[in-house]
Amino acid sequence: MNTRIRRIAMTAAAAAVLPLALSACSDNSSDSTTSDSSSKASASASDDAMAGSDATTSSDEPFGAACSAVPEDGAGSFDGMAKDPVATAASNNPALSTLVTAVKKAGLVDTLNNAQNITVFAPTNDAFAKIPKATLDKVLNDKAQLTKILTYHVVGQKLAPEDLENGSFDTLEKSKLTTSGSGESYTVNDSAKVVCGNVKTANANVYIIDTVLMPAG
After folding, report:
1. Buried b (16+ CB within 10 A) or exposed e, 126-159
2. How many CB atoms neighbour CB 98 within 10 A?
3. Predicted confidence (pLDDT) per residue in 134-158, tens digit
4. d(Cα 102, Cα 9) in Å, to the nearest integer?
5. Alpha-carbon distance 180 to 194, whole Å?
6. 3-state SS string over the chain?
7. Residues 53-68 as b or e (16 or more Cβ within 10 Å = b)
8. What number of other Cβ atoms are within 10 A of residue 118's Cβ?
9. Which of 22, 203, 13 is nearest to 115 (CA)?
10. Any bridge partners for residue 155, and if so which?
11. What CA–CA distance (Å, rounded) separates 74 from 81?
């Protein structure tokens, strides 16, 4: 009898413990599943945030065929130019050396460097080369005319690419220039094409163009 009673007691104890063990396993499994789901959701959210960040960054990058000629590092790179005011930044870009010479001859270095929140449409050396040499030399030696032309390339506000889609802006020369286009293709005054746009300097947005703009009159 004693042996039989012991067996009944052991069977009852096992029966009581088994549901508890199963319950514990079930709870752990549930917690693990919940934890895994949370981790995956968190990782997904993190990936989405990264993707959004990259998208924002890429849309704010310089664009255009001529951007490939900009040095990858140093003072003349995009990162380097972003640290300097616009006239100084331009002086570090070999493709803008004629413009920089003109700015110095006109005495506009300090004016451009000290201005805040401006946009500069910067003609390349090739743009100046389209002007007959005799005419260019004459302009470079006429400070008043040179100042008039250069200040016509400057707008007193920072323009983002989307602002150029169908725009008309007052220049420092006191007359207007117009812009048109979309995406990564823009034209100024229906004549000058933006070949490298949305270049940032410490105080300006720069759009490098392939033709020198001429104010009326």
Report:
1. ebbeebeeeebeebbeeeeebbbbbbbbbbeeeb
2. 19
3. 999 999 999 999 999 999 999 999 9
4. 105
5. 10
6. CHHHHHHHHHHHHHHHHHHHHHHHHHHHHHHHHHHHHHHHHHHHHHHHHHHHHHHHHHHCCCECHHHHHCCCCCCCCHHHHCCCCHHHHHHCCHHHHHHHHHHHHCCCHHHHHHCCCEEEEEECHHHHHCCCHHHHHHHHCCHHHHHHHHHCCEECCCCCHHHHCEEEEEECCCCEEEEEEECCEEEECCCEEEEEEEEECCCEEEEEECCCCCCCC
7. eeeeeeeeebbbebbe
8. 21
9. 203
10. 119, 171
11. 9
Predicted TM-score (pTM) of this structure:
0.73
The tokens describing 145, both together, are 């005319």
> What's the token pair of residue 206?
């720069």
Largest Cα separation within the chain, whole Å, is: 127
- pLDDT for 82-140, tens place per residue? 999 999 999 999 999 999 999 999 999 999 999 999 999 999 999 999 999 999 999 99
Q: Residue length, the chain?
A: 217
**Tokens in use for 37?**
């789901």
**How far is residue 6's CA from residue 128's CA, in Å, rounded to a whole number?**
107
